[in-house]
From TrEMBL:
Source domain of life: Archaea
Topology of the protein relative to the lipid bilayer: Multi-pass membrane protein
A Gene Ontology term for the protein's cellular component: plasma membrane
Keyword Ubl conjugation listed: no
Keyword set, alphabetical order: Cell membrane, Membrane, Transmembrane, Transmembrane helix
TM regions (residue ranges): 26-44, 56-81, 93-111, 116-136, 148-167
Subcellular location per the Swiss-Prot or TrEMBL entry: Cell membrane
Taxonomy of the source species: Archaea, Methanobacteriati, Methanobacteriota, Methanomada group, Methanococci
Name recorded for this polypeptide: NADH dehydrogenase (Quinone)
Length: 196
């Protein structure tokens, strides 16, 4: 059930994209309520839960981050209703769907145990939030979107490079089963510290 924390916003994002009209502005808030309930369920669980083997592992830090994401999503989606009512956007469906995709990707990044899946989720947050920046479709929003994409892409590229370097720093990489944070933590003593 815990994987619903990122699957429901993603599915709702697809639905919100194809729905036109005033109903679109209410979808993120309804999904935020469901997201908060699922997040509360995840945070109340007494032990660390392995949901999908080798891909998702909810740590105590992941629960905190997921709780913050859910709280902020609830607040933002509530205030988005009035924001969209007072604006004359023809693209409310894009705002709602990109907000939902953003939350889905953020939630996946918070509970992912696989290094590359985390990287993909963070890249997805960049793309969906760039669409939110470009929402006004003015010259300034185009400039801001490109600056945001370039800045984030450099950081995300360095993160991917860092992931590969981390794997190469292990003395016996064949003992590591996959690119999992939980497995890497077990082998931290094997990391070559380069002079430390």
């Amino acid at each position: 059930m815990d994987e619903l924390v990122f699957l429901i916003p993603a599915l709702a994002g697809v639905i919100a994209y194809f729905i036109r009209g005033k109903l679109t502005r209410y979808i993120p808030f309804l999904v935020a309520i469901v997201h908060a309930v699922i997040t509360a369920h995840i945070c109340i669980e007494p032990s660390q839960a392995i949901i999908l083997k080798n891909y998702i592992f909810i740590t105590p830090l992941g629960k905190i981050v997921l709780g913050l994401i859910s709280l902020l999503f609830l607040i933002v989606s509530y205030y988005s209703i009035d924001y969209l009512k007072n604006s004359n956007y023809e693209s409310e469906h894009i705002y709602s769907s990109m907000l939902l995709f953003f939350v889905s990707a953020m939630s996946l990044a918070a509970i992912s145990d696989h290094i590359i899946l985390t990287w993909i989720a963070i890249e997805a947050t960049t793309i969906s939030s760039a669409s939110l920046i470009y929402l006004h479709k003015t010259r300034d929003s185009v400039v801001a979107t490109w600056k945001y994409l370039i800045t984030c892409s450099v950081g995300i590229s360095l993160a991917l490079l860092g992931s590969f370097i981390t794997l190469q720093s292990f003395m016996e990489p064949e003992k590591i089963s996959g690119l999992l944070f939980s497995n890497l933590m077990a082998y931290t003593g094997a990391i070559n510290h380069y002079g430390s």
